[in-house]
Amino acid sequence: MTFMGWALIAMGVLAVGGAVRIVIGPTVWDRLLGMGLISSKIIVAIVIFAHILDRSFLLDVAIIYSLLGFISSVLIARFIERRSTS
Predict the structure, then answer these.
(1) What is the pLDDT of residues 24-43, one digit of tens each?
(2) Helices 28-53 and 57-85 meet at what angle, rounded to 10?
(3) In total, how many domains does the chain have?
(4) Distance in angstroms (rounded) separating the CA atoms of residues 31 and 34
(5) Which is deepest, 16, 34, 59, 60, by most CB within 10 Å?
(6) Tens digits of per-residue pLDDT, 29-80?
(7) Domain limits for position 18
(8) What's the CATH code of the domain at 18?
(9) What is the model's pTM?
(10) Rounded distance between C-alpha atoms, residue 43 and residue 46, angstroms
(11) Terminal Cα distance for the chain, rounded
């Protein structure tokens, strides 16, 4: 197995930490942090797949996914903050 294969396995194992944070996180902020962690691991996995398969369009997919993940995290955080103050 190549280094990239081991890196993909590592991303999967590390994403489990995010899933645990989502499930047992006592606050909604912990769950949001877990979603961000899983999202970043998915982005890294897409980049690794792009390198393995030699498909540069997957890098565009990773960039779009990262932008969507960032925007959704900000919007969810703003929604939670406004809901808790009113």
Answers:
(1) 989 888 999 999 999 999 99
(2) 180
(3) 1
(4) 5
(5) 34
(6) 899 999 999 999 999 999 999 999 999 999 999 999 999 999 999 999 899 8
(7) 3-85
(8) 1.10.287
(9) 0.85
(10) 5
(11) 54
